[in-house]
Amino acid sequence: MVDKNKQIYMNNPNLPSKGSVFEYSPVQIKQLKKASKNLLYFAENFFHIISLDDGKQKIKLHLAQKRALRKMRDNRFFILLASRQIGKTTMMTIYALWIACFNKDQKILIVANKEGTAIEIMQRIRMAYEELPNWLKPGVEEYGKTAVTFANGTRIGISTTTGTAARGQSVNCLVLDELAFIEPHLVDEFWKSVYPIISSSKKSKIFVASTANGTGNLFHRLYDSADKGESNWACDKILWNEIPGRDEKWKDDTIASIGSMEAFNQEFNCEFLDLGESSLNEEQYARMLAGCEDPKFIFEEGKYRLWEEPAKDGIYIASVDTAEGVGSDSSVIQIFEYSDLTKIRQVAIYSCNTISPVNFTEKVHEILKHWGSPLACIERNNCGAQVVDNLKKIHQYDNIVSWGASTAGRAKNQLGIVAHTNTKQKGVTNMRYWLNDLEAVNLKDIHTVKELKDFVRYPNGTWAAKKGAGYHDDKVMAMLWNLIMLGDELITRYFEVLQTDKNNKPLKIKQFDFGIKYFMNPTSIYSGEGREDGYNDTTPIIIGNAQNTDSDIDQLMGMGWTPL
User: Fold this and answer.
1) Are 170 and 200 in contact (CB under 8 A)?
2) Which residue among 13, 89, 303, 426 has the highest number of C-beta atoms inside a 10 angstrom radius?
């Protein structure tokens, strides 16, 4: 093989330019002809992937992938329901590159639900193309981040699932990745924009692949009608156990990792979970209602309710969900006690729908002092950012948990909980594990339990309160961010895990020493309201440790604090 013109694109030896000419050996000619006619031969002999364990290597297709690729090749309309991590994006990439190498003047468009995903798919295509032998490739005319055009006139482009995606374009092959995860308000408009692309030609093809994500959405409807033979779509399903090396132990480990059998069934067993599913079934709801009781203390006309007093040996976590304070959603503070992870206790809640974010910051700080300045999980989205930043800047409050910022593409050191699709989904899965699977959370507040019953799954897989007047999820979200402290990403950051359960979840924990804990008896700032015995201790309490110096204690006592 000799490149007579020695022409390469952008000084990359793996990119032959448009005018490159090759001399072919008899073996290469034979391989070229076979690869152009046989998709699987092309994939297994020339297509490279990057393995996390083995690095760059030729792909080894498993039987399920071969089956799906044949259907992709032989059908004009094809939809794939797939377990996570089975290589569905790789299959799309293989097909797109095969078409591009051996067909002239084709327009291939790959559409993903997120820009980052679309760019990653294009990166895979470019990497796989560069690893092909130069004599097998069409030359390069354009080689961009979002589009590649070859010397044979074929173009591969990417887009995202917006309402205007691909509108006005003429496409021979349309590939849709993770269709089930398009935001609900975009689904119909998106489909109206893309479907005319393939219906304008009798030979244009469309392929859809996605993991299940609830019922009633576009992906579910397309797959269900294809599976029942009610449309002209071919379909296939690849389950978790069709992947070599996955056995029952792998299944058990995965369930333990994601925290729920239900999540496994949707993510890996290709089950469409019912639309509108509640966080609680009727039995769970009845059990939690039975555990509710009247608070021991009621302050601020019912806004602040306590079932226990702060204890020096308690492990408390506070969580905060902030609203605008205009009479609709409520700003909520939840306090939970974690000394016994088989009996996690809701000990206090504050809720108000008219308090402004500025005044709410002061209220948060006040209540945090009641409970010994505990770790605070504060959602910083929207109005919550004001609470987080003011707590830190004005009150120098240091025990603010940070989580989810990098997932949402923000600075890693950003204080607070960043609510994002991924973080919220993890939070819901974690919450349901502790509430439903383990039945380890003792809820005392009836309003929290009722909100939980009306906290439902929507077609796109997200969780939120039922739509309509009177439905809210403020108390649930505050609880969700509280329980996230028991998740794998946070528990070891703030606690020493002394014992775990069979699923490797924490069973007994010890909080790292943060120094002096300042507990202020909540009755000290009120006039004994809600206290049956009328007791009113106006003196704050110091709970110290061996690291506290005498001067520390003396200084505090001089300010009116009393050692416990």
Assistant:
1) yes
2) 426
Task: Tell whether the model's pLDDT for residue 331 goes beyond 90.
Answer: yes
Q: Decide if 39 is inside a domain.
A: yes
Compute the distance between CA of residue 50 and CA of residue 37 in angstroms, rounded to an integer.
25
Task: Report the half-sphere exposure of 84 (CA within 13 A, side-chain side).
Answer: 12
φ, ψ of residue 332 to 5 degrees: the values are: -130, 140
Together in a domain, 53 and 124: yes
Residue 355's nearest CA partner among 487, 474, 490 is 474
Which distant-in-sequence residues (6+ apart) come within 8 Å of 504 by Cβ? 256
Q: How are beta strands 48-51 and 155-160 bridged, if at all?
A: unpaired
Pairing of strands 155-160, 147-150: antiparallel
Q: Which residues pair with 12 in a beta bridge?
A: 9
pLDDT at 261 over 90: no
Same domain, 423 and 542: no
Please state the φ and ψ torsions of residue 442, each to the nearest 5 degrees: -95, 100
Would 1 be classed as within a structural domain? no
Amino acid identity for residue 528 in this structure: G
Mean pLDDT of the region 274-287 = 76
Rounded Cα distance, 13 and 7, in Å: 9
DSSP assignments along 364-430, one per residue: HHHHHHHTTS-EEEEB-TTTHHHHHHHHHHTT----B-EESTTTTTS-TT--EE---HHHHHHHHHH
**Percent of the chain scored above 70 by pLDDT?**
83
| Domain-located, residue 272 | no
Q: Indicate if the pLDDT at residue 466 is higher than 90.
A: no
Quick one: 368 and 487 in the same domain?
A: yes
**Can you read off the two tokens belonging to residue 62?**
């498993």
Output the pLDDT for position 388. 95
Give the model's pLDDT for residue 334: 98
Q: Say whether pLDDT at 562 is over 70.
A: no
| 455 pLDDT above the threshold of 50 | yes
**How buried is 300 (Cβ within 10 angstroms: 0-12 exposed, 13-18 middle, 19+ buried)?**
middle
CATH number at residue 507: 3.30.420.240
Element (H, E) at 388: helix 384-393
Domain encompassing residue 537: 519-563
Q: Which amino acid appears at position 249 of this protein? A: K
Q: Mutual orientation of helices 446-453 and 282-291 as an angle, nearest 10°? A: 170
* Residue corresponding to tokens 């690849």: 238
CATH number of residue 62's parent domain: 3.40.50.300
